[in-house]
Write a structure and sequence with these properties.
4 helices; three-stranded antiparallel sheet; mainly alpha
């Protein structure tokens, strides 16, 4: 393994760790029944899919979302609608 491959691997590890940490912080900030929106990580857990699939659903218009600075917040109601329309009896 050469130096550039090692740097790339370290960068990926750090980036993934920071992304996971941000997700944990976001869940603490936004995880409340009073809120009408959730983070991409929370949507991923609710939909039981990858983050990439959540982004695909957003691009296709299946999930309504809003940007708050750099943070993307997905409407919880749109997740429920998607689940009701795309799973038997609306269950996952």
């Amino acid at each position: 393994m050469d130096e550039s491959e090692l740097k790339a691997m370290i960068y990926d590890c750090i980036f993934n760790a920071l992304e996971d940490y941000q997700g944990v912080l976001s869940e603490k900030l936004y995880d409340s029944d009073e809120n009408t929106h959730c983070t991409i990580s929370q949507a991923q857990k609710k939909l039981q899919c990858s983050k990439g699939h959540v982004h695909k659903l957003m691009r296709e218009g299946n999930l309504s979302y809003a940007k708050s600075g750099r943070k993307t917040l997905i409407e919880k109601a749109s997740i429920e609608r998607y689940l009701n329309d795309n799973t038997p009896n609306g269950s996952v």
